[in-house]
Amino acid sequence: MTPALIFLFVLLALPVLYVIVTYNGLVAIRNHIRDAWANIDTELKRRYDLIPNLVETTKGYAKHERETLERVITLRNQCRANTGRVVEQAATETQLVSSLNGLFALAEGYPDLKANTNFQQLQAELINTEDRIQAARRFYNGNVRDYRNKAQSFPANMVAGMLGFPPDAEDFFEVEPVERESVRVQL
Fold it and tell me: pTM for the whole thing?
């Protein structure tokens, strides 16, 4: 083999090798995103399973708070049924978190409920689940950030565009922070 032929081979092989490595990197990040979403989904389902027990425990003490309890259950059912885009799910999750905070604030007006062991355990379990959701969400969003960085950076953006990896294909899972509002408790 002549040096010119070797040079030509290397010159043609490097771009092909770059495309292969870039494609495999994008596939790996996309799979990390899907795995991270599955972790979030698992934690969300855990939250959805805890909510009916919390509402049932609260019902016995806060009989006059039917509207709050029904709102929590309605939002829980909407969130559970939402399998659309991440942004859509984030919007309903924000509403659910807000209504759960209202439920916990409502418990402040019922000392017997607040002292109930079952309620305390459910509340602690729900808080633990919220922490796990936050950790899973940070991991997921980190993977989305890495994907977007790779899909938007030159020259990888050319490979991404040609091979079907649009930079905005994956959404961040952003749950709006719940503003502290005064909760009205009627006895």
Answer: 0.78
